[in-house]
Design goal:
Layout: H1 13-44, H2 62-95, E1 106-113, E2 116-121, E3 134-137, E4 139-143, E5 147-154, E6 159-163, E7 168-172, E8 178-183, E9 188-194, E10 207-212, H3 214-230
Parallel strand pairs: 1-5, 4-10
Antiparallel strand pairs: 1-2, 2-3, 5-8, 6-7, 6-9, 9-10
Helix pairs in contact: 1-2
């Protein structure tokens, strides 16, 4: 799967890759068996010496119907039911276990608008919507080895935050606050995209996620906090873009 998917830089991305790999394998096997069956039918039931027309049936015999039902049931259980159970296990066991009580989690408020992403983290005072908030446009810097907890809102239409290297895609919906979380396992740069068509410049709604190790992240954060205080404008759009993390107001 590494040949066709972006590199996995997340703690739980292997769960998504495993589901994709299982689906690819099982549907590939079914496709190969269907081709083999069709090829056998062409070879053994074709017209030949002593037979003017190829043999065929209408498939309306009881044994034909039982065979078709059995094959369909086996495919349904082996592919759909198995994947549904696997996805439910992974969602409830990992992806929906949000780090609400984890003091080490980096909390990020994400505001989507046509056609940009704004990322906001609380400054030293630990509160959102204050002058020391760290606000970045189309760039999200995160520490390696710590949970990153996202809450998303949209200013206009439906957008979808897509982090392919972290196997995360979550919609930002007007009038709602959605959430997701991930954890980077290695430092590096990866792409941020919008996976929901949101207007004529949808293709421009791209960004950069930078995962930094401990010292590098601390140095970056110190510079970013200083820059945010210097450029803070209480009447500016970034100043009024935050909300209280707990109450959502």
């Amino acid at each position: 799967m590494h040949l066709v998917l972006p590199r996995d830089a997340s703690l739980d991305g292997h769960l998504v890759d495993g589901a994709i790999g299982y689906l690819t394998l099982t549907t590939g096997v079914v496709f190969a068996l269907a081709l083999a069956f069709l090829l056998a039918a062409l070879l053994f039931h074709r017209a030949r010496a002593g037979r003017t027309w190829g043999q065929h049936t209408h498939g309306n015999r009881t044994r034909d119907r039982v065979l078709m039902f059995t094959v369909a049931l086996v495919m349904f259980v082996a592919i759909d039911v198995t994947l549904a159970l696997r996805a439910t296990r992974d969602l409830e066991g990992r992806f929906w276990r949000y780090p609400d009580a984890d003091p080490a989690a980096l909390r990020v408020e994400v505001t989507a608008r046509q056609w940009a992403w704004t990322f906001r983290t609380a400054g030293p005072d630990g509160r959102f919507g204050t002058p020391d908030d760290v606000v970045t446009l189309n760039e999200l810097d995160v520490p390696v080895g710590r949970p990153v907890y996202l809450k998303l809102r949209s200013r206009d239409v439906v957008h979808s935050l897509y982090l392919p290297s972290f196997r995360i895609k979550i919609d930002a919906i007007p009038g709602m606050t959605t959430r997701a979380w991930f954890q980077a396992t290695e430092k590096g740069r990866s792409e941020i995209g919008c996976a929901q068509h949101c207007g004529v410049n949808h293709y421009k709604m791209r960004g950069l996620l930078v995962a930094r190790d401990g010292a590098d992240y601390r140095d970056w954060l110190a510079r970013a906090e200083t820059d945010s205080r210097l450029r803070y404008d209480p009447a500016g759009p970034t100043a009024i873009g935050g909300w209280d993390w707990e109450t959502g107001q």
